[in-house]
Q: What sequence folds into this?
């Protein structure tokens, strides 16, 4: 390939991220040309609605509503799938990869649901599926794990992978606002996805955790086989109590590998995390990922997890890697493709069962403020062999009280049983709420 | 190249890092083979002293004391220069690159002094010079800037690049120890380089800053043309005063690009930095780098900046990139080589003169504790148009006092003049000490 050739890119989808890619390739065109030695040119833009007004005017001859015009065009070097969804996107990603094309994507849901098939197609056809922008927006976490830390096996990867929920938790903590109040603000700022469950019930972050688990360990994990809990049940009292005990509450993705037992735990849930952890200090819409490798030790990467420009930054870095592939690096370290083909290694890697999780817990029980209620609660916990580390009690104005406890080492089964026994007590006014206390050590 | 071939690596130097590379390739051999599709094999180890006992036993047939045996051996795919120094290392790096070989290095001093020549040789001969391990140990900051953030122009890069000085500052802060006491401990832990000036006078970190400046902006900066100040003059009183004002004192590397004026400022000095900055929270032997790109925004990377294993992790990641190059990616995004050849771009980029730095400052003046001394000091500062933000005074046991001031916006010339006027006052007992207050915004 000559140094001065033009790399032809077809965009499927021209929403926020697509327009960000267009805009930032324009802004830094000369810099990119110097760095890459080639010219990145978007030659085709495929949209659903040809009539819609957009901030960026695309010349009409480049615009179409037919993805096949890009996918089946032999002159397009790189297909950039930014349309989202898992139907059309699946169809056309499959079709592009089957032709041995390079597909760059930000579509985490598609990778989670169909990654195994798509990477297998890429592997078989000589295509490439690049997905830096699918996890943690502008943070190059995929490249860091795949290339920067290639010497490592990964004992623990954890972090904050959803900016919207982190923004809500940060404002609840800083301003003493309730979840509902903060959610209202987050909605009006346009931070919350149309399908709110993605942000609030942890599904978006769980998708990303599943992708990181695959990248680091070569194993595809199903969303319905892991703990996935969102932030809706967190109250200001939980955050205050956590703070007084030296913790913050963060929605954490945890990918925990036990090499001795050859087990993998992938989970996504709100957690108490010590303020002394760097990740606990990652606030607002920022994302942060902590990676512990057996060679490098622990490293942390923090940056914008979403937004037009940050996501475009990652898409463009994948375009640059695609250029290297087009220039001959057809065996670029796409370890996940190898992992995928390497069935023996992953077949015997077991997913830790949800029940098997052990650790310390925080438990909030809403009770009638009457004599003996704390002793009743602690008796019930003792029956489940749960011993307590701290106890906080708060009188509420309506004559009820909150008992907020942290436990010593316990486990999911004990906590679930305890919550169920507590619920059936007359003095307990609502379903008790528990959060795991995360200890990375 | 066949999938199952062996990549032959020659190590020049077998000290701490060399043995770390050997050990960690052994430990994760099967993982690396799966990820890379090839076997990394160290075939030659060159040492100065063949007789020395080492923790790792190298088979005698692999061991020699002649670097030429590796550098001129056509069967060696990658030369790994871990011998250090700038004489023999320069000679053999040059010779390897001239043959179009791939050289992987951790030698920051060599890159700083001779990088321009070495990258030019690599460029001309088709060789490659890879240096992830030269900056910030295990943190893949080179890859992050070069590839992960390839879409960006870099307004500001700053951070902590020397673990030893950061360890000393952390212990001084946490335990209220003096510089000398902490240095003693750091020495006995083996944290301080044999040539102590490298760690204590900021030279090691300045080398790394110069490499990052080249990587990000394509300009070679000479060590003697930048501000380079170490940590020897920092006292417990400075740290306490900083803390009370909401700052920490960190030895910061700053690479500040003004795109409008097309100027570049590279500097290395102790600085007051707001505790709310993530980098301020990077303690002990950890390194941390904050990168602000025009597309991605600000991202921070934190990890171990030194040590056998962390550095080996980065060397091995370069070996993996070298494998990709050997497999055909002969135009892998080595943007710095392009920058280097791209004289037009860097010729007109001016280095900001040291004098031109402006900002806020901290100033410590040791005075006789007598009437009117504070007013005398502030008068002198006013003459230099330095206005004060805060004033702290501390009586010492010997009847003298420390005046610790922070200024509003000022500049190097004013501060230098003020310090010189102050020194000549009878009431001022020693050379005043100043530190810059760093504000990344």
A:
């Amino acid at each position: 390939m000559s140094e001065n050739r033009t790399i032809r890119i077809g965009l499927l989808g021209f929403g926020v991220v697509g327009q960000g890619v267009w805009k930032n390739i324009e802004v830094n065109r000369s810099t990119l040309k110097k760095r890459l030695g080639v010219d990145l040119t978007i030659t085709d833009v495929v949209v659903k609605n040809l009539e819609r007004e957009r901030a960026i005017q695309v010349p009409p001859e480049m615009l179409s509503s037919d993805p096949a015009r890009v996918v089946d065009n032999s002159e397009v070097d790189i297909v950039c799938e930014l349309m989202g969804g898992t139907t059309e996107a699946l169809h056309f990603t499959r079709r592009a990869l089957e032709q041995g094309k390079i597909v760059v994507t930000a579509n985490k849901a598609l990778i989670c649901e169909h990654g195994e098939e798509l990477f297998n197609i890429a592997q078989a056809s000589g295509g490439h599926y690049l997905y830096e922008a699918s996890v943690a927006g502008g943070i190059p976490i995929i490249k860091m794990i795949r290339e920067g830390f290639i010497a490592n096996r990964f004992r623990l990867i954890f972090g904050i992978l959803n900016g919207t929920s982190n923004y809500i938790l940060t404002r609840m903590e800083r301003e003493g606002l309730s979840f509902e109040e903060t959610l209202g603000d987050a909605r009006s700022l346009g931070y919350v996805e149309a399908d709110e469950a993605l942000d609030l019930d942890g599904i978006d972050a769980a998708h990303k955790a599943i992708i990181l688990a695959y990248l680091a360990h070569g194993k595809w994990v199903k969303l319905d086989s892991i703990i996935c809990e969102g932030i809706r049940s967190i109250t200001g009292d939980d955050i205050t109590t956590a703070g007084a005990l030296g913790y913050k509450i963060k929605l954490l993705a945890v990918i925990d590998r036990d090499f001795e037992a050859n087990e993998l735990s992938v989970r996504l849930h709100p957690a108490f995390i010590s303020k002394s952890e760097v990740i606990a200090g990652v606030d607002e819409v920022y994302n942060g990922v902590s990676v512990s490798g057996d060679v490098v030790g622990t490293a942390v990467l923090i940056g914008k997890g979403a937004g037009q420009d940050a996501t475009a930054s990652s898409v463009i870095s994948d375009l640059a890697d695609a250029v290297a592939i087009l220039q001959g690096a057809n065996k670029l370290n796409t370890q996940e493709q190898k992992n995928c083909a390497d069935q023996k290694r992953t077949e015997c890697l077991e997913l830790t069962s949800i029940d098997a999780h052990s650790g310390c817990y925080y438990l909030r029980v809403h009770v009638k403020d009457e004599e003996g209620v704390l002793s009743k609660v602690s008796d019930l916990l003792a029956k489940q062999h749960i011993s307590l580390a701290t106890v906080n009690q708060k009188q509420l104005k309506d004559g009820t009280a909150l008992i907020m406890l942290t436990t010593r080492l316990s486990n999911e089964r004990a906590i679930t049983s305890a919550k169920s026994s507590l619920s059936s007590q007359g003095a307990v006014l609502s379903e008790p709420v528990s959060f795991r206390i995360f200890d990375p050590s």
